[in-house]
């Protein structure tokens, strides 16, 4: 049996959903749209129920894309998801407004259970509700009180589900109800007014307000939180804390995961018979899976914080104070958190845009998020900076290298604002952007809700985006490990015959061979093939190879260079690699790494979408290949031309 | 008759009209009904957006949106 969960936003709908289904839930998208669909399962005796949580709405008539789902569903009984019954969750302290949507469902003759949630608030606000009277007004509807945040009312809801009355009602709130057309605003307004008139009369009978109490606590906190100075100061502190956690503390579990997968691959390769199969497992699949799992700490941390911000009601205030500043760029107050988390990693950032309900603003945020300089760019930046930027101090303490690093980050931010500003005019949307947002009262976070939200995000990433990441990393591995015909064997033989080769130690021999293999592989060929195209940027085929391999992830650039030059990896400082690169000369005898080519490369990495995982997540979040491909092309074009310009101006 | 956006923080007023626009029905659905009283509880810098308390809920609106709501001062 299909049971739908409906209700206004901020009524604790998801708390009820979590209370009923616990961990037995899965998220996906509603067919054809990118609105999150949460479905949970409940078995009572031999009966199985599927519970679907629909986006919160104030009425049947939609103003935004996510609300349209409810309208489309309820106006077509043949829809696969059309519910057999519905739970309608209301904020008991705000019954009047909540009843509008409820009476529409009532008139559509859907079997209903009315859940008066946040029941404790009624007493706090000095409100008394006469439930018997309410039951009389809606014959055939079971009415229950609950407090899902405190996990109260589960048994009552379950009992109501088991005793659901599925026969059609003969009573209506408005007689002869005809659902208005989606664009017929006049008819919708007339209906809303009529309903409110009747609801007002009903409320006068049902609700007794002993004394009007405002939420003094929330008001007091708000005086600081949305303060023109303190509000921003607090927000910056909150962002810095989140950023700090993701940026530095995520690296500990990430290195651990990295180590486990490296060791596991080495261990497995000893036990499997040597050959293609061994290679595929140990160098293709295991590192590929490792490359997916390694993102979990960052995703978990970011969503831990976002869930807290959302649960407490702070996120709505962030939107409130940031809305005006972000609007000129076609962004939303809610874009701030994803964009800031993008400084750590674009993947959780793109996933975090789900809080933005306006489609256009969400697409723009997703599109520009990868321009923020993420942590994977740092190894590339630091290598290139120490390579081509001299260590000069101005005024004794301002380091030129530091200024360059700062400029690279600023360039990313400028790209974010500029591109979103342009996209504001390009992306077409029928939806008019509006704010109209409820600022819920402050609440303590509920840890089970937060835990479930984190688990969902991790599941979503691993099982949806993970497939694409694994596929691309296996392709990249194959391209780097195999070459046309027996070119690789020939290259190995040639290297072994070199005079100096016999003089090398075992480790150095392996390194020389790995370098020769990479050069002879398909990727090596591709690097040479694209050399004419990247020459105007100041790059040679060796950089070309590293550009291709680092499509897996930006930091791979450094490792690839080390392999190509057959240099020992000496940890974080990369001194040997830097020394080797400084000596490198091209065919004409000029240095490969000059100020011009170095800066050109850095700028290339600021703009280029060198991250297959981000592409996979964007594909998942936008439900099509269109957006990630446009992103790949536009970011690539921007990277190419700015790098070209930088090289030509500086050479 | 005033635009809601011109009301000062802490001032109470009563809705007398909601101007036609694509979000008129949304405003009504959210409880902005003619005759209801409301209070401006706070404003963001530059007076945009503003937060309104109506039916004991706080709702934030952009200035353009608040301009659609015409009010009369109340004491």
* Element-by-element helix/strand order of chain B: EEHEEEHE
Describe the oligomeric state of these chains in a short phrase: heterodimer
Helix content of chain B: 10-25%
- Biggest interface between chains: A-B, 39 and 29 residues
Describe the structure.
The complex is a heterodimer of chains A (651) and B (75). Chain A has 651 residues and is an alpha/beta fold. In chain A, strand 10 and strand 11 (398-399) form a beta hairpin. The longest helix of chain A has 35 residues, at 447-481. Chain A is elongated and about 100 Å long. Chain B has 75 residues and is mainly β. Chain B has two helices and six strands. Chain B has helices at 24-29, 63-66, and strands at residues 2-3, 12-18, 37-43, 50-54, 57-61, 69-74. Chain B has a six-stranded antiparallel sheet. Chain B is globular. The model of chain B has no long low-confidence stretch (mean pLDDT 92). Chain A binds chain B through residues 58-59, 61, 63, 93-94, 96-97, 100, 125, 185, 188-189, 192-193, 196, 212, 214-215, 218-219, 222-223, 226, 228, 316, 319-321, 323-324, 432, 434-439, 441, and chain B through 22-31, 33, 41-42, 44-46, 48-49, 51, 53, 55-62, 65. Strand 12 of chain A pairs antiparallel with strand 5 (57-61) of chain B, so a sheet runs across the interface.
In short:
The complex is a heterodimer of chains A (651) and B (75). Chain A has 651 residues and is α/β, with parallel strands linked by helices.
Considering the chains and any ligands shown, give keywords for the structure.
heterodimer; A: 651 residues; alpha/beta; seven-stranded mixed sheet; two-stranded antiparallel ribbon; 29 helices; 59% helix; B: 75 residues; mainly beta; six-stranded antiparallel sheet; 13% helix; 43% strand
